[in-house]
Amino acid sequence: MRGYLVDIIAVSFFAIEWLVYAVTLEHTAYGRDGLSARMNIYREVWVRNVLRREARMVDMQIMASLQNGTAFFASTSLLAIGGALALLRSTSDALAVLGALPVDLTPSPALWETKCVGLVLIFIYAFFKFAWSYRLFNYVAILLGGMPPVAECATAEAEAHVIRTTRLFEAAGRHFNRGQRAFFFALGYLGWFVSPWVLFATTAAVVIVTWRRQFASSAWKAMQN
Predict the structure, then answer these.
(1) Rounded to an integer, what distance in angstroms lies between the CA atom of residue 89 and that of residue 81?
(2) DSSP string computed for 81-117
(3) DSSP string of 67-90?
(4) CA dist 6 to 10, 78, 211, 213, Å?
(5) What is the pTM of this model?
(6) What pLDDT is stored for residue 110 in this prediction?
(7) Which tens digit of pLDDT belongs to each residue from 97-154?
(8) Residue 89 neighbours by CB under 8 Å, 6+ apart
(9) φ and ψ of 26, to 5 deg
């Protein structure tokens, strides 16, 4: 156990950073100023504009593009799961390659398999998030199709439909963002295959990059009120 202490600390650091970042982004006042939160405002604006439009074919085409993008990431997650399982199956070959390097990076077979299982679990999580997001986008498309006609846009029923559609739309985007976040952190997790010290560095790099995109990027500045 003592020999694996640094690995345990590094993986704990990775998990805590992921959790803290996700909670900060989705459940704090600070996170409500992020790029994703600012885009949620325009989800509602879009739905309200749809309510006032007679012709809604363009809106449905945009929804189709969102669904296709989510389906692409869900399919990519399955491919990534297959790749990680192949890596797990090829433990002896991978250790032989690492053993041939000038720097000794060879972990024990048990540790290598643990790393592979962790990578598989991350991609499984991403798949479930993308698959659920795709399902939610389907529901949003149904609600857009059931939008009241323009003549009834001022009714309480129309307002309730807008709120219902917007909330479902936000949920779809939230799960999509979680899936993408899993992809980003999976890249950081790959550092553990080199060394637990590299995992510290790659985890910090992923947090910095994703934070910057949410709170300091040109896209975030463009969405300022």
Answers:
(1) 12
(2) HHHHHHHHHTHHHHHHHHHTSSS-----HHHHHHHHH
(3) HHHHHHHHHHHHHHHHHHHHHHHT
(4) 6, 31, 26, 30
(5) 0.90
(6) 82
(7) 666 656 666 667 788 888 999 999 999 999 999 999 999 999 999 999 888 888 888 8
(8) none
(9) -105, -20
153-187 pLDDT, tens digit per residue, is: 889 999 999 999 999 999 999 999 999 999 999 99
Q: Could you tell me which of 51, 36, 39 has the C-alpha nearest to residue 159?
A: 51
CA 185, CA 203: separation in Å to the nearest integer? Answer: 7
Q: Which residue shows structure tokens 């001022």? A: 154
CA pair distance 86, 30, nearest whole angstrom: 41
Burial class (CB within 10 angstroms; exposed 0-12, middle 13-18, buried 19+) of 74: buried
Q: Taking 80 as the threshold, does the pLDDT of residue 190 lie above it?
A: yes
